[in-house]
């Protein structure tokens, strides 16, 4: 399968199941040992998505909760795969319940990733969670409720994270493009104190993909790297992490003409204009090539013998390897000091942030592949 991103995972522990009206009936019966959910009704089409849920009490999951949390919320949803036109902003969507290891977040900002629209297009429907879907992986917001087994986070904490452990394998049915989302504590970290919610939302999936990909490639101090797609959400962070965290001896990166100065400002020692130069013709070779654009067949021509090519998308040519991130809050915690010191910066596309009612426009822009940094949605009511 063509890699769909810079990912994350999730084992769908407690899907909220929503039957369609007779014309779109979807029958799914699943039960989770920690919580039991009975869906009474869901109305789609011309009516808002309305999902009412009753949850059988569980001794294991007695939740500490705030009385101010509503039972319904606004959320972006889709009930079928397709283009941006299948997305609808609905009201009356049930606020998700939390299991004992989860927290409920009042979403302040969310960011979009290529995996979001590739998921909506049905690129990995065989491993997707059931429709209907609330999209969104990246989140920044405030904890308003905690499960009984949550150890460190508490109500009022400002957090950020990628809410699905694996993006392609059972990602969360109810994502971050909503007023509230339920997330496992292990996927979250406290928001860096110097970042606002927009900046924090721009980071999780991309920075975890960048960092863990470099680790998997065995990148370390004194090594050289070429980043393909240096101005994108992942590539811009690979440049920064390679230089500021890993201690690269040389960082080269590709971009279009108008973004050459931008990637230099991030730490690229050599900025390559892919509209005028063929990077595969460079006389020098690199210890690692990080391919965020799908050009592995060319990338392998500029990697040193014994080196590695990290491949996020497209066909893989040895010694390239497909990389799919496993999301964890531990990576974010490890990188927080670099973010708080300003050595590594969150990069938000200048056309944003997009307001919550303009999510379709935000996706249309993301799908042009011309974004610089991350496309962020803010504020979320």
From TrEMBL:
What the entry lists under Pfam families is as follows: ADH_N (PF08240), ADH_zinc_N_2 (PF13602)
Q: What keywords does the record list, in alphabetical order?
A: NAD, Oxidoreductase
Domain Enoyl reductase (ER), which positions?
82-377
Molecular function in Gene Ontology: oxidoreductase activity, acting on the CH-CH group of donors, NAD or NADP as acceptor; zinc ion binding
Q: Which InterPro entries match?
A: ADH-like_N, AOR-like, ER, GroES-like_sf, NAD(P)-bd_dom_sf, Quin_OxRdtase/zeta-crystal_CS
Task: Describe the family membership recorded for this protein in Swiss-Prot or TrEMBL.
Answer: Belongs to the zinc-containing alcohol dehydrogenase family. Quinone oxidoreductase subfamily.
PANTHER family in UniProt: NADPH-DEPENDENT ALKENAL/ONE OXIDOREDUCTASE, CHLOROPLASTIC, NADPH-DEPENDENT ALKENAL_ONE OXIDOREDUCTASE, CHLOROPLASTIC
* Protein name listed in UniProt: 2-methylene-furan-3-one reductase
Originating species: Sesamum alatum
């Amino acid at each position: 399968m063509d890699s769909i991103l810079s990912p994350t995972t999730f084992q769908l522990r407690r899907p909220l199941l929503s039957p369609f009206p007779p014309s779109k009936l979807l029958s799914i019966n699943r039960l989770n040992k920690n919580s039991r959910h009975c869906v009474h009704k869901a109305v789609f089409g011309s009516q808002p998505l309305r999902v009412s849920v009753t949850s059988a009490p569980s001794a294991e999951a007695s939740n500490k909760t705030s009385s101010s949390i509503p039972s319904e919320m606004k959320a972006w949803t889709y009930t079928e795969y397709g283009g941006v036109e299948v997305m609808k902003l609905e009201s009356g969507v049930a606020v998700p319940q939390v299991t004992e290891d989860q927290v409920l977040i009042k979403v302040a900002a969310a960011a979009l990733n290529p995996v979001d629209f590739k998921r909506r297009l049905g690129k990995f429907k065989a491993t997707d969670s059931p429709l209907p879907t609330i999209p969104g992986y990246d989140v920044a917001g405030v904890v308003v409720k905690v499960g009984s087994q949550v150890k460190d986070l508490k109500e009022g904490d400002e957090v950020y994270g990628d809410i699905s452990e694996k993006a392609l394998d059972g990602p969360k049915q109810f994502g971050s493009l909503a007023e509230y989302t339920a997330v496992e504590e292990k996927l979250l970290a406290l928001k860096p104190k110097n970042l606002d919610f927009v900046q924090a939302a721009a980071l999780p999936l991309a920075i975890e993909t960048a960092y863990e990909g470099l680790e998997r490639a065995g990148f370390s101090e004194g090594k050289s790297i070429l980043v393909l797609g240096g101005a994108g959400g992942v590539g811009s962070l690979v440049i920064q992490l390679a230089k500021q965290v890993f201690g690269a001896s040389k960082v080269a990166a590709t971009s279009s003409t108008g973004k050459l100065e931008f990637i230099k400002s991030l730490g690229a020692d050599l900025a390559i204009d892919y509209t005028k130069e063929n990077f595969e013709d460079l006389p020098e070779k690199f210890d690692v090539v990080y391919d965020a654009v799908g050009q592995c067949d060319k990338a392998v021509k500029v990697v040193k013998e014994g080196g590695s090519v990290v491949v996020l998308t497209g066909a893989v040519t040895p010694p390239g390897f497909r990389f799919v991130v496993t999301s964890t809050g531990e990576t974010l915690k490890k990188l927080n000091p670099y973010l708080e010191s300003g050595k590594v910066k969150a990069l938000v596309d200048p056309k944003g942030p997009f307001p919550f009612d303009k999510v379709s426009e935000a996706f249309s822009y993301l799908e042009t592949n011309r974004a610089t940094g991350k496309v962020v949605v803010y504020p979320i009511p």
